[in-house]
């Protein structure tokens, strides 16, 4: 089998590097181009020395990439820029986008949360939301897949099956979430310095994080009526991992049964035995997600947990899982590695 | 002024060491005895080398302490043991207990949560709950003060004033909390190894943590009716600090006003400007607590935050604050140090 | 090709779990037995939840393992116990031992450093020291391979080629080393608690760490005369990774050239460009080692660095690399994964 | 006693904040001005929320400070800028500088290491090097004191007394050092992001760190002949703390005796019992330094350790210790707090 030729646009960030890491041992893909506008001309090994043992193409600018040498683009660029770049790509190429630019169906919602008009409405119409477990069939036939937010997928794995099954009160969903600092990217910021993050747990973007838009869109579809959760993310003093702790009203056993049913055949989502809760260390570095359901002491209430690695299942692993489907490869190809613990 | 002579029972744990650290520069106290049953005979500097510059008494067993040389005992022993030890102390000595043994008024609640009968019911009757901000007047005249749970005080600072002011729905209180690993003590356990904690965020004792008993007791008193919150603690990959993220139903501005009123004159509790949230790094190593209130996007809902250092305001600093009151010293004496950041 | 049947003796420790993690995606091996004396009867997923997605045999005691179902044993047991256990295994089975029990040729050295007589001298005679890069040919034909100490391999990669090439003064070798806490194992100890390790950098076993015995044995062989280095290990507040910083006397460029020559064709050892130094984060979770050489300001002196992951190249990855050779499999099989960063 | 009026120039960095933290409870100093050019006009509590309980002056620009309201300036500005700023201050004010600008006696050395001419040679002539333990008498009468580098003081505490006592070979000094990330400051840089530092131990500025200039200057004075050590610093995944591990040739017991003699009456330097080594966690947040001496297995060699907190004894605590002497206050005033552990 010939390997699919892959370009990664925006390879100098953490999600770009994570794509390279995963594709390095992927039997069905090979990297034909890596781009990074500001670091064009450099070797990938000078940007990411952990990849120095690999034989990789030199970093180039996007307009230096020959589309004839690319079957599928992974696009790991900032939002807004992304819409411009993808608009300029040939329309016969497959694209998996990791930015926020094609996640929201409704241009008004996009404008509300991202502060400017959507610049590629025609592309938005063909984009499929990249939460593989819920949109697998559409992703298989898609040309453009919009990867989910890393927090957004975590909350959705915990909540969406419960709304579909009608086992929780859709007006009483509280998503408390904590995320590792790699989700904030590699651009230097005071708030992500080691001296600030270590011993420094705190909430951020409280009740106004952009991933709320994804929750509202997807939860409303699942429930068949408008649903808006409370969402508070926190920044963890650790590099990787997201844990969502979701407070819901419903019967805990029914909730657990709904999860078990929804994810029964999923290769990457494990529902823990009733009463057990996941930990970020048990999914680190892998494409696995762990779901747990625990009954509250108060009748009619339950706590639902979801844990995953923000850079893998929350971003680059998810992107490869979707690309596998788009390319007709086995869905789990290249993603079989077990979590790294400790 | 002669300094009050202090004994610390259980000086080989983290809260014991923290008492020594704080008393070392306290102008009104001096340490006359330190006990540690298993390490009796050793110098404190061999157990805690960070205290080696201090001139401290050698560790002894409890029955080697001369009560004639003690005015006030800090008791930092495990629960159950504590009841026996305190029962055997002379009845004319002041005691600040840091264990769970005298926190619950109701012996039935004690038995339910701690698994055995209360062994010192007469002492329980005179014990005053040690949350200084709410029981200051009773603590001033108390002989036996029961320090709060470290999680328990954090949740109570966030919630109790709101129940007293009647500005939140008492049936809809969800306390999501994350705590540093020093709260789990110095006894070696697999779950608190660095290799397990680092990168390993997870919940524990979900909806069945013993501090729920304190919440139920104190919240019910504040509300004048039974109140039972949902409570889920999580273990942070950091040493110190607790952040409670509390989801309530009520008007956010009214909630903020209730906090501002309740803590207006408190030396150690700061209510942040409306819309701001605290971080554990901003209280680390100090007796300060920070409270924040943020409105949810959903009308009629708010998120209340409280942050403090579990070993100081959550344990040993609180104990000294109470001892200051019992001894007739200025309440803030020895506790003025600013937080250590970074 | 039929996969080689593998037993892992001592699967409840970190190196045991790491063997399982790596074998899980190894195309040439499958696990037929996992042992853990104290946890026999349990599922591996209850001991290591990060492996719960795998279909693994239940933990058993060593004497429950059917040798007929095993071609190669990985032995990840404490020292001394190991000699007894391996002595009792059938003599026609291949064994890769991860303990210290068969590393030292000289029984007197073993007794000096490990405090008791060697209990299996006949096995010692056939044991081959498992530093693949230096003993590859002998390992291919070995039945019993003794994995190196994790610190020991790090220092040897940095120093041994220089002694062989005669480019440094053998009497002036100072190995300063820092290691992640996972190397201390999963048994709970005060010294490896998060609260003690975090922010707590310090040296340990100063100038008397047992891996000195390996250095003396191997360096002396390489130099053809007795060589004894100074060796001071330190405990890092991180989970994985070893960095050796070695101070030597010699011409830095010649040293770099000797390294480049020694490791030119090695799949897992990369010599960085002259003047560059490695970081533990760039090898984390992988079987790769990075070597760097920097000239000191003082003429005739150089600093040599080696970085690797203590649980992979320093233990379980090395063990699999050796097992691959013993089983006639490609040496890199199952070890191709790139490092996990961040 | 009236408190001395203090201005802190450069209060928006970590050393500036640390000065404020320490002065907040200093009985002999009060802050009359805080400057931060880019954040002038802001409250200190918005830059450093951990100081929000303090009543502090608003941040201003340097030229807004009224010298009439200042007796002593702490100058925590970048190098080069510092020379200009201090040159413009009235010549009758006391100054404790925390930058590198006045540490080197020799303008040629300054130019070599800092890349440009010294801009205030007259001030350099009156500057006293701020290593209190070695220059106490001159500091008492100084107007301008140049604080040491944080790495520089750590190495000097370990080595200088040995050179003075003539108990080590001055040509064979190797200073291996590891430092917490707060030493790199608060300006956002990729290399100090949490995601890069955590699990990422590595050396930096190998054999060319600017603090070598201080070592050469001070060691040569102590030895009465030119001395140049090897110096390799490493970046620790922790916020605070420096540990120097120094390899020397000499008799270990004599070395220990020389340390014991040199520091016998020092309030902030403790020499551990022979054979014991310090840890950064045991000095964290305090002005204490711990020294340890261990014999190497190889005769005639020893390992000397020094541990201190880079932001306290390595910078702001040292500055206050010096200011106390200059102001005629007790040397330990305001610096008595015990280390914060864990």
From TrEMBL, chains A, B, C, D:
Respond yes or no to whether keyword Cytoplasm is given for this record: yes
Q: Report the SMART domains cross-referenced here.
A: Semialdhyde_dh
**Subcellular location(s) of the protein:** Cytoplasm
Its Enzyme Commission number(s) read 1.2.1.38
Residue stretches making up the Semialdehyde dehydrogenase NAD-binding domain:
5-142
Q: Which reaction does it catalyse?
A: N-acetyl-L-glutamate 5-semialdehyde + phosphate + NADP(+) = N-acetyl-L-glutamyl 5-phosphate + NADPH + H(+)
- List UniProt keywords, sorted A-Z: Amino-acid biosynthesis, Arginine biosynthesis, Cytoplasm, NADP, Oxidoreductase
Enzyme class of the recorded protein, top EC level: oxidoreductase
Catalytic residues identified in the record: 150
Question: Main role?
Answer: Catalyzes the NADPH-dependent reduction of N-acetyl-5-glutamyl phosphate to yield N-acetyl-L-glutamate 5-semialdehyde.
Protein name in UniProt: N-acetyl-gamma-glutamyl-phosphate reductase
State the encoding gene.
Answer: argC
């Amino acid at each position: 089998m010939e390997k699919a030729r892959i370009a990664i646009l925006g390879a100098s960030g953490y999600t770009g590097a994570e794509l390279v890491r995963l594709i390095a041992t992927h039997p069905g893909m090979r990297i034909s181009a890596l781009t990074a506008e500001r670091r064009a001309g450099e070797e990938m090994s000078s940007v990411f020395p952990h990849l120095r043992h690999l034989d990789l193409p030199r970093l180039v600018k996007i307009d230096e990439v020959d589309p004839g040498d690319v079957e599928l683009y992974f696009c790991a660029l900032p939002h807004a820029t992304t819409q411009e770049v993808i608009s300029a790509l040939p329309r016969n190429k497959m694209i998996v986008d990791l930015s926020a630019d094609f996640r929201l169906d409704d241009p008004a919602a996009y404008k509300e949360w991202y502060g400017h008009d959507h610049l590629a409405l025609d592309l938005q119409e063909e984009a499929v939301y990249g939460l593989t477990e819920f949109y697998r069939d559409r992703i298989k036939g898609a040309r453009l897949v919009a990867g989910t937010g890393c927090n957004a997928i975590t909350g959705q794995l915990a909540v969406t099956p419960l709304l579909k099954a009608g086992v929780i009160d859709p007006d009483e969903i509280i998503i408390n979430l904590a995320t590792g600092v790699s989700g904030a990217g590699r651009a230097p910021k005071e708030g992500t310095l080691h001296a600030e993050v270590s011993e420094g747990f705190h909430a951020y973007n409280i009740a106004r994080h952009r991933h709320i838009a994804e929750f509202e869109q997807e939860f409303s579809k699942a429930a068949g009526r408008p649903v808006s959760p409370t969402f508070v993310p926190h920044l963890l003093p650790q590099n990787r991992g997201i844990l969502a702790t979701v407070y819901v009203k419903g019967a805990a056993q029914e909730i657990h049964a709904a999860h078990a049913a929804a994810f029964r055949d999923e290769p990457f989502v494990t529902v823990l035995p009733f009463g057990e809760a996941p930990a970020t260390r048990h999914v680190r570095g892998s494409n696995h997600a762990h779901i747990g359901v625990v009954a509250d002491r108060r009748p009619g209430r339950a706590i639902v947990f979801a844990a995953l690695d923000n850079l893998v299942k929350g971003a680059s692993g998810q992107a490869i899982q979707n690309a596998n489907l788009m390319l007709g490869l086995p869905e789990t190809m290249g993603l079989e590695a077990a979590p790294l613990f400790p």
